[in-house]
Amino acid sequence: MMHRETLRVPEERVAVIVGRNGRVRKRVEKLTNTKISVSPDGVVTITNPPNSEDPVMAWKARDMIRAMGRGFSPKRALSLIDEDARLIIISLRELVGNSVSQLKRVAGRIIGENGRSRRVIEETTETMISIYGKTVSLIGVDPGLEYATRAVTMLIDGAPHGSVYKYLEKMRREMNRQQSELWTSDL
After folding, report:
1. Strand pairing partners for 133?
2. pLDDT tens digits for 118-170?
3. d(CA 76, CA 71)
């Protein structure tokens, strides 16, 4: 059965999605066994061929396109091919309203001084974060993605950066403990 999905991306991101000589689009098509058409005004159509063995690949292609549309580089967006990787998009407009000053303030809290908050969240949870327009998007694998999403939500809700960093350190210790248990159970 053929699967077709249409989505819209910001016009200024179309060139990133297509890439030089169509390279990025072709790479996504090859990785996901889909056909992708991109119009200059940002309408993207993803088609999964009828003989496709894996319909999930159309969703992977959709998430890669959405990630590039939300400000991620093609390289970062293509990491979504990993079967455990997920994309989460948080609408700041829904959480803080349409006030431009509020949106800027919240985006600034997430980014932090010289990008520190964003960097700490990304490094501690092994995720990637993009703040673009009125959204914050995250790419990663659980449990890190879950912890990063919680940290971003805490910042949006006005929690002090120190509290968020303490939470992240606690979660990092938990992630390390889980990983060491995996290693010892494999031996």
Report:
1. none
2. 999 999 999 999 999 999 999 999 999 999 999 999 999 999 999 999 999 99
3. 10
Spatial distance between the Cα atoms of 64 and 139, rounded to a whole number of angstroms: 10
Residue type, position 74, single letter:
P
**What does residue 183 show for φ and ψ, rounded to 5 degrees?**
-65, -45
Which residue ranges form the domains of the chain, and what is each CATH number? 3-81 (3.30.1370.10), 86-186 (3.30.1370.10)
The 10s digit of each residue's pLDDT in 80-104 is 999 999 999 999 998 888 888 999 9
Six token digits for residue 82? 């990993």
Helix (H, G, I), strand (E, B) or coil at 122: helix
Q: Are β-strands 135-140 and 128-132 bridged in parallel, bridged antiparallel, or unpaired?
A: antiparallel
- From CA 151, how far away is CA 170, in angstroms rounded? 12
Q: Which comes out higher in pLDDT, residue 62 or 180?
A: 62
Kindly state the helix (H) or strand (E) to which residue 138 belongs, with its residue range. Answer: strand 135-140
Structure tokens at 91: 């609408």
- Residues constituting the chain: 187
Q: Nearest 5°: phi and psi at 86? A: -135, 160
Tell me if 92 sits within 8 A of 135, measured CB to CB: yes
C-alpha distances out from residue 78 to 30, 100, 110, Å: 11, 31, 24
Q: Which residues pair with 51 in a beta bridge?
A: none
Residue 32 is predicted with a pLDDT of 92
